[in-house]
Design goal:
The structure is a single chain. The chain has five helices and seven strands, in the order E-H-H-E-E-E-H-E-H-E-H-E. It is of the alpha+beta class. It has a single domain, classed as Aminopeptidase, CATH 3.40.630.30. It starts with a strand and ends in a 5-residue tail after the last strand.
Length: 177
């Protein structure tokens, strides 16, 4: 890819149109970026990071939106395979990848992987040192499950989650490289 790509938080002056995602199932991702991302950003509800292509007039070619979240478990199952850890809550603290999208013409260049790495790095380097956060989680569209599995995420293995239209996947920050 010869383009000059810059990944950074969105700004009020940014133009957030022109993201083409192909499959209509991804249309809500495009609508969120165009209509809601700046407001969520301004009101501290979410942080959106976008990949801008300078060779295309700083057009957004990929983005991710991060929010605080949790992984809620059924019953008393534990995500931690550490016998000496007794965690008394029914949910685990997590950074959530609320949205992640890559322009259809920019797929295959590693932008999605870079945005996942940004989320993991943010969790490890900024959030974990300040507050409790053990996981990064995502409610994945079915079409994107394989992408997240390749990034090291695991499917939350409960019957309820396997039956969801957007199953939860997660990565344990203590095990992520």
């Amino acid at each position: 890819m010869q383009e000059k790509i810059e990944i950074r938080q969105i700004r009020p002056s940014d133009r957030l149109t022109g993201l083409s995602l192909g499959d209509p199932v991804f249309l809500p991702l495009k609508i969120f970026l165009q209509k809601h991302a700046k407001v969520y950003h301004e009101r501290n509800l979410a942080r959106t990071y976008a990949a801008f292509d300078a060779s295309q007039g700083n057009k957004v070619v990929a983005y991710t939106t991060l929010v605080s979240g949790e992984i809620v478990l059924e019953g008393d199952k534990s995500l931690l395979d550490e016998p000496d850890v007794h965690y008394n809550y029914k949910s685990y603290p997590a950074l959530k990848i609320a949205r992640l999208a890559v322009h259809e013409k920019y797929r295959g260049y590693g932008l999605g992987q870079l945005l996942v790495q940004l989320a993991l790095g943010t969790a490890k380097e900024i959030i974990c040192p300040a507050i409790g956060c053990r996981f990064v989680a995502v409610d994945s569209k079915r079409q994107a499950v394989d992408f997240y599995l390749k990034q090291g995420f695991a499917l939350l293995d409960t019957r309820q989650n396997r039956d969801r239209s957007e199953p939860v996947l997660f990565i344990d920050l203590h095990k992520a490289s």
